[in-house]
Amino acid sequence: MACNSTDLTSLHIGDDTVERTDNFRYLGSVLDASGNIDRNIKARISAAWAKWREVTGVICDPKMPVKLKGQATKT
To answer: Left if phi > 0, otherwise alpha if psi is -120 to 50, otherwise beta: which for 49?
Structure first.
């Protein structure tokens, strides 16, 4: 991603070429060239729902002990 540059399509660093992009993920956040945070919010909501779907298999399973369900809920 390049800020304040519209004519740049790629960047050459040594023998490597890095293509220009409008958004990318950095330290868990999605950064956008325009400074908009909508994509970051959608990515965080999507990640939260994915984790919820993983944990519902334990919480909703009638064969799992209640103590294990409580530990999963606390976590």
So the answer is: alpha
pTM for the whole thing? 0.57
Cα–Cα distance measured from residue 68 to residue 1, given in angstroms and rounded to the nearest whole number: 45
Cα(50)–Cα(73) distance, rounded to whole angstroms? 16
Domain layout of the chain by residue ranges: 10-74
Per-residue pLDDT of 13-26, as tens digits, reads 888 888 877 778 88
CA 39 to CA 32: how far, in whole Å? Answer: 8
Q: What is the pLDDT of residue 5?
A: 59
8 A C-beta contact, residue 24 and residue 34: no
CA dist 1 and 21 (Å) reads 5
